């Protein structure tokens, strides 16, 4: 057994019990309209919020394609109805089964689902799974998320409570990527998409 294996063995020996989740204050957003709260917080950090009916998803995405001049898109696998909508979008290429991160890096936009929406901060939550490409969330200049109203929760604590914390990692995205490292000027899209659209049905 080498030193690395010894260290991993020791770590596993001390991970027999999970750390208990904190108690949640369920009264903080008790009388708040979670959709409106999420919309306010999401738009405040530069996100673009679109609430629509299911039969309008094609039209809304088509508007984004025209506005952002999108020609090549990556789309994750949704249910049959949404897959059919995406298949009919007027673009040059739609990638649904990427074979490498490089393929994701050259698309104009990605269309993905998410796991939760946090009203308190306008944050979109992605729970990491092997079949999901992390790069689809980070690399394209435009990210389009399709979600359902029932995915909105009040706080981050509720995400852990509902999921039980049974995941290796999560992404928390609050608006488009931005930095002010250079001359204190805010620049969007340095560490992630320049635009983040949320279509909620």
From TrEMBL:
Entry-linked InterPro entries: FTHF_cligase-like_sf, LUD_dom, NagB/RpiA_transferase-like
Lineage, top ranks: Bacteria, Pseudomonadati, Candidatus Kryptoniota, Candidatus Chryseopegocella
Stored Pfam families: LUD_dom
Protein name per UniProt: L-lactate dehydrogenase complex protein LldG
Gene3D superfamilies: NagB/RpiA/CoA transferase-like
Signal peptide: none
LUD domain sequence ranges: 97-201
Stored PANTHER family: LACTATE UTILIZATION PROTEIN C
């Amino acid at each position: 057994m080498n030193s690395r294996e010894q260290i991993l063995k020791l770590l596993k020996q001390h991970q027999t019990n999970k750390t208990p989740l904190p108690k949640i204050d369920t009264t903080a957003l008790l009388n708040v309209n979670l959709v409106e709260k999420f919309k306010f917080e999401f738009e405040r950090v530069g996100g673009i919020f679109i609430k629509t009916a299911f039969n309008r998803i094609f039209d809304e995405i088509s508007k984004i394609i025209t506005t952002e001049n999108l020609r090549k898109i990556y789309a994750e696998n949704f249910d049959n109805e949404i897959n059919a909508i995406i298949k009919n979008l007027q673009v040059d290429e739609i990638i649904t089964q990427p074979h490498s991160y490089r393929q994701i890096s050259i698309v104009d936009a990605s269309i993905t689902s998410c796991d939760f929406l946090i009203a308190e901060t306008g944050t979109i939550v992605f729970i990491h799974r092997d079949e999901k490409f992390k790069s689809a969330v980070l690399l394209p200049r435009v990210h389009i998320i399709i979600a359902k109203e029932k995915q909105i929760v009040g706080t981050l604590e509720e995400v852990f409570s509902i999921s039980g914390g049974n995941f290796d990692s999560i992404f928390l995205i609050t608006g488009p990527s931005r930095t002010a490292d250079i001359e204190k000027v805010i620049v969007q899209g340095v560490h992630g998409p320049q635009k983040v659209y949320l279509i909620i049905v």
